[in-house]
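seq/struct pair 1
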Amino acid sequence: MQLNELAKNPKLVIGVKQTTKVLMSHQAVVVFVAKDAEQHVVRRVIQLATDQEVDIVFVESMKELGKACNIDVGAATAVIEK
């Protein structure tokens, strides 16, 4: 999935807490993580995605991920649900 198509996806979920919930329910297709996000914030998301063999796409910055999600603030993580 291309980053510029992210905001158009109706199954897009944004934010660490919401991403974690999707991963916990085993409903994730692909996870996006900002490289400049605090590691202690995204560590669990990365671990859950790795354990479930969900693809992880690393984005250069929180600002870029937020923009791709069509929000006015940065985003540490986002996920596409099944």
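seq/struct pair 2
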Amino acid sequence: MKNTIYIIIGTLLFAIAVTQLAMPNSIAEGGIVGIALLIYYGMDISPSISTPIIFVLLLSIGIRYLPRHMVYKTIFNVVLFSVFISIFEGMYAQPIEDTLLAAIFAGLITGVGFGFIYQAGSSVGGTSIVARVFNQQLGWDLTGTTLVLDAIIVIAGIFIIGPVYTMYTLITLYVGKVVTDFVLGGFDSKKALNVVSPYSEEISQRITSELASSATVFYGRGEYMKERRRVLYIVIHSHRLLRLKRVIKEVDPDAFIVVHNVKDVSGGFISGPTLK
């Protein structure tokens, strides 16, 4: 039930972004929705009609390469999207004078919508279907192939909506990706650090006492000095990163620190309130 609600909310937001911001301002998208929008700009055929047709054509090619649960969810999603488009398309939206503003907010709303859709394990269909076929038949990388196919669709927009609006489309896609990652990662994002220092024990003690957190210790050997050293691996909330780096630098100003973005953390993560 929760997944169904997520799909409805996400698809509703996506349809609003397309009809109220993208279509009035000649902004395109990626995937089959991007193709449908280019058809709309070029031939004045509503995306509510072209989207399911394109999806059915792609699905007929790649259905045997997709998990059944994903097929069912995506079919529901595409049908729902077409219904929402037909509803909101009738609510005529005026173009915004500042197209950049329209591109940013289209990406913002789309990103939130995609976040809900992906959380439900669904999609709006499209290039990922073709990419999966190439992956199975030719061994091509799934993510890279999807990116190339989406890029081809966006570049094709130059010949229909022109280079300027294609650049606005790129802004929308970028903002959408950032927001989607934020929604999927949650508000409580985390960072992972690798710390190499001869004072690693003191750093570890201060992390425990002052940040109420912990560190995992690995042992590595530097190739240049041929020395065996302790390597600390620490996962911490993003808003506490600066405090952690300050503690490390107070102990060892020359400590080698590498910070990684963390997509998801579960099980065994220790982080309490900062101690005074």
